[in-house]
Amino acid sequence: MTSSKRGGGAPVQTRMLALLFISGASSLAYEVVWTRALAAVFGVALHATTAVLIAYMAGLSLGGLVGGRVAPRLRAPLRVYAALEAAIGASALLVPLGLSAVGDLYGWLHEPLLDHPALGFVVRFLGALAVLIVPTTLMGATLPLAAEGCVRRGDGLGAGAGRLYAANTAGAVLGVLATGLFLLPALGVSLTNHVSAAVSVAVALVAVALVGRAGTARETPAEPAPAAREARGAERPRRRRPAPAPGNAHVPADAHVPADAPAPGNAHVPADAHVPADAPAPLRAILALAGLSGFVALGLEIVWTHVLSAVTRDTTFAFTCTLAAFLTGIALGGWTGARLSARAGTAVALFACQAGVALSALLSFAVVRWLGGTALLASPASFDAAVAQQLACAALPMLAPTCLLGASLPLCLTLAGRARSGPGQAVGRVLSANTLGAVLGCVASGLWLVPRFGFGKAAVVLSAVALGGALLALRLHAPGGAQGPLRLGWRLAYGALLVELFLVLPAASTDWFFPARGAEGRVVFHAEDASGIVDVVEREGVRTLVTDRRHRWGSTHPAMVQSMLRQGALPLLLHPRPSRIVEIGLATGIQALPQLRDGRVEELTVVEISPAVVGAAGAFAGHNGDLLSDPRVDVVLDDGRSFLERTRRRFDVIVLGLFVPYRPGASALYSRELLAACEARLERGGLVIEWLPLDQMTFDAVRSVMATFLAVFPHVEAWEKGHYLALVGARGPIALDAAQLRERLRGLGGAAGAGLRDPADVVASHLLGPAQIRALASGAPLNTDDRPRIEFMRLSEGPGYARAAQSLERLLELRAQPAGVAAWPEAEREAAARRFLARGRSLRGALLQARGRHRDAYAQFAEALLADPGDEIARGEVARYDEALRRSSR
After folding, report:
1. Cα distances (Å, whole numbers) of residue 783 to 542, 670, 790
2. First to last CA, the chain
C-alpha cells in the first residue's frame, strides 16, 4: 500500500493559499527592511541599490532552481516547506549580524573603490549576497515545494500553481502596505524584522499542523506496481519515441505512479476535461518567455516609479502605494492567468498577454500625461485620502500591463508542465527564469537604458521586448508557422515591432509622459539617470535647476543667488581656518562660490549622487565660478552618507545641504549615525552644518533633528536664511569676535553679493543658541537608522510656505543673539542689536504677509526700517506696499 503525497487534495491547496498569502506578506516586509538596512551599509547611490536588489533577487532565483530540483525527490514536500519557513524566520534574525560583519569589511574597501565603480558594484553585490543568500534562497524554494506538495497532476499546472503564485503575490501587497504605512513608522526597522520573522515561524507551525492532518507523507514501495513498471519501461527508449500526447506530457520518466493509478496515457485527464490544443513546447523557449516577462516587469517598474513620482507625489508613502499598485496588478493577473490556462490555448493566450503588455506600456505615456494635468491630484483632505489617491493614480497606468504580466507566469507554468516536468520542478524552473529575467531587467534599465536613452525611450524598448515575447509565444503554438487568424496576428505583431524600433523609438522622449511645459521656459540642459530627471530651464535670462519636473534647487535670479551665497558663506564666517570643506549635494554649485574665493580654503570636496546633476552644474558656470574646472574641487559621485561613514579623510567643515526630507531613504541624511560619522571626520575645532527646509518638514520633525544633533554634539546653534534653517554642531562654543568677522568678510570676496555688509549683518541671522535648542528639543524623539522618523512624518496638506511660516513663528519666539556679542565693543554691540531687531521685524512681517494680514505686515516692515534703514527685505516690501497704495488711490 502507498499513500499519495498529495492526498490532501483541494482542502490542502485551499489552506496552502492562505499560508502562501501570509508568507508573501512577510517576504515583502523582509525585502523592504533588508534593503533599507543594506542601504545604511552600502549607501543609496545607483550602483549600490542596484547591487543590493540584484543580490536579493539572485537568491530568490537560486532558491527556485534548487527547490525545483529537490522537490520531486521528497517524500513529504509540505513538511520541508514548513521547515523552510521556520529557517527563513531564524535566518532573518541573523541578518543584522551579517550586516555588521560586511559593513566592517566594506569600510576598508570603500575609498579605493571610488575610482573603480565597476569593481565597487561587484563588491557591493558580493557583500549583499553574502548577507542575503541564505534567507532569500530559502524563500525562493518555498513555492516549488508548495506546488509539489499540493498541486495534483490531475490539475493543470498553470491553474494549480498559478493560484499559489497569485496568493503569494497578493500577500506581498499586504506586506508592502503594512510595512511602509504602519510597521516601519510605528516600530522601526529592527522590530519590523522581528515581527516578520515571527510570522514566518507561525506559518511554519501552521504548515506542520496542516501536513499532519492531511497525511501528505508518501512511502516508498519495495516494488513498483505493474502499471508503474509498464509506464517506466515504455519511456526508456526516449530518443526513439515520438512526442508524448498532451495527456501525459508532464509526467517525469522516473515518477512514482501509485498501483491504483489509471493508465499513463490518460492519468490526469478527466473524462469531460477540455484539453488545450498546444503541443508540448521546448522547455528552453518557455523559460526564455518567463525570463522576458520578468525583464519587462522590472524595467517598467523602474520607469513608472520615477515618472509617477514626478507627476503625483514623491514621498515614502507614495512610493509604498506605487509598489503596492504594481504588485496588485501582478496578483490579479496571476489569478486570471491561472483560470485562463485551463480554458484556452495556452500559447495563444500568452501571445495575447505579451502583445497587450507592449500596447499598454505605450498607452501609459498618455495615461501618465493625463494624470499630470488632471484634478485627481488636488490636495486630499486627510492622510487616508492621500493614500487612496496615490493608489488610484498608480493603478491607472500600471494595472492593465501588470495584470497581463502577472497572467503570463501561470501560462508559462502550463506550458512547462507539458514539457515532462513535475509540479515542483516546473514551478522552480519557471520562477527561477522569471526572477533571473527581472535581475537582468533591473541591470539593463537602471544602469544602461535609462542613463543612456532616458525614461521615454526605455519604455519603448521594453514594449518592443514584450512584442518579441509575443512572437516567441506564437511560434511555440505553431512551430511550423501560424495559419489563418494567427498568421494575421503574427504579421501585425511583427509589423508593430518594426514600427516601434524604427519609427517610435527614435522619436520617443520622456516629455511624452508629462504635460507641455507651457511658460516654464527654454530647456538648456536635460539629462536622466536612475536617480531621476534633471533639467536646466531658462526664462527671461534666469536659469533654474529642476529635478523630476517638480523640485527647484536654485536659480540665477538675484534674490536666489544672494540666498545661496549666504548659505555658502556661513561656514567661512564661523570657522577660523576652513582649509578643507566637504559639501554633500552639489545643486547649482552657486553656494560654493564664496568658498572658492576664500584664500583659506585649500580643498573643497563635493559629493553628489546624481551624474546628471553634475552635468547640469556646467550650465551655471558663470555664477558658480566654474567650480568643476577648479583644481581645488574634487567631485565625488557617491551617496553622501556612505562617503562620510567610509572615507578616511578629515575635514574642518562638513556641510549637509538641502535635501527633500520626505523622500525614501532621506531619514538617513538626518540620522544620529550620520552625525556621529561626521563628528568622527572632523578636525579639531571642526563644524557640521545641516540645512533644514522648513517648508518641507513638520515642526515635530525639526525638533527631532535638533534632539538628534544634541545627542552627538555638545554645542548646537541655529541660523536662518528665510525659511531655511541651519543647525551648526560643534564640540565646543563657537567664537564670534567682531574684528575677526570683519576680517573674514573682507577675505570672503562674495560678502556683498550675499547681502552681508558687516559683523552686525552676520549675527542678525542668528536664531537660537544652545539653551534655546535644548528647550525646544526636550522630549523630542531621536531620528536613527532603526527609527527613521523624518521621512515618515505626515505633512499637512497645503502650501509649503504656510508650513514654513508656522515653524518659523514658533522658532522666533525663542530667538536670541549669539552669546559672544556681549563682549563686543559698545558701538559694534549696539549696531548688532539694531540689526538683530530689524531682521526679526522683517521676518515677522513676512509671516503676517503669508497669512494675508497685510496691514500688520506693513507695520512690522516699517518698524524694521526704523531700526535699520538698510534692511533690504523691509525696504523692498515697504516700497511695494506704498506703490500698491498709490495705484489704488488713482
Report:
1. 38, 7, 7
2. 107
